[in-house]
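yo, inositol-1,3,4-trisphosphate 5/6-kinase is done. seq:
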Amino acid sequence: MFDPGTTIGWTFNLFSELPSDYQRKHPEVAVVDPPDAIEHLHDRQSMLQDVADLNIHDCSATVGVPKQLVIREDSQSIPREVAEAGLCLPLVAKPLVVDGTSKSHELFLAYDQSSLVELEPPLVLQEFVNHGGILFKVYVIGDFVKVVRRFSLPNISRRELSKLTGLFPFPRVSSAASSAEDADLDPGVAELPPRPLLERLAKELRHRLGLQLFNIDLIREQVNRDMYFVIDINYFPGYGKLPGYEHMFTDFLPSASKSKEKTGTMGNEFKLCMQY
Ligand SMILES: Nc1ncnc2c1ncn2[C@@H]1O[C@H](COP(=O)(O)OP(=O)(O)OP(=O)(O)O)[C@@H](O)[C@H]1O
Ligand SMILES: [Mg+2]
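structure:
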């Protein structure tokens, strides 16, 4: 339970001044996640760089990121850059910056090289990984790690690929997708990633990102079943969809407060800051 004197504030756009100035002026406030660390997740390249650097192998499984390329300008050069980087079609094209606008979540599937010139940089081009249409959402709340299954994009077969050309926009899967927890899934696709692997991934990412509240979108490759890919990391995701999140939060917040206490800058007030 919380100390009765503790105030919990859910604050949006809290910092009208520099975060460092705010913290200096209000040492009584425990800031759970610093805005500059959150900022790191607003760029799809820097977001996944930490995963790429982790080099996680556990229980005979490996976690990595799909092969990807950043295009900052000049759409005409994309087919050449893709060929030089050795990226295989189909590709998922994602806006480089994730700023909370719907445009930053407008994704395309690109089936052939020549149509890549129609894309609008800056963007990230990522190899599409066949993963059986199921995505694992790994929720992190401090030490708590919980994984759920969500529907995702279906596999694309070689035969389909040979028949398809062009760019295809696809709807925002996360907002549309209902939970896949109760679906009648192929056991091979439904099998959750090994717990030790998830715990290690969450712990190392918490450390590297300097964040406590985020989720990781993880997919498992269909052909090489020991290979998992992180495709997205979201700060302060919709925890409302996570069963039992209330208890995780009520356990997490006092522990975060205590760790602040140990550093000698204990606050009796909590503010969870969302910046967009
Ligand atoms: N490399 C990939 N291989 C296969 N499928 C992918 C890949 N990248 C993304 N997807 C699919 O596209 C969806 C959206 O991708 P991503 O999460 O990167 O974008 P987003 O803009 O953050 O979308 P959302 O807000 O829905 O999470 C994923 O949930 C997954 O179904
Ligand atoms: Mg996502």
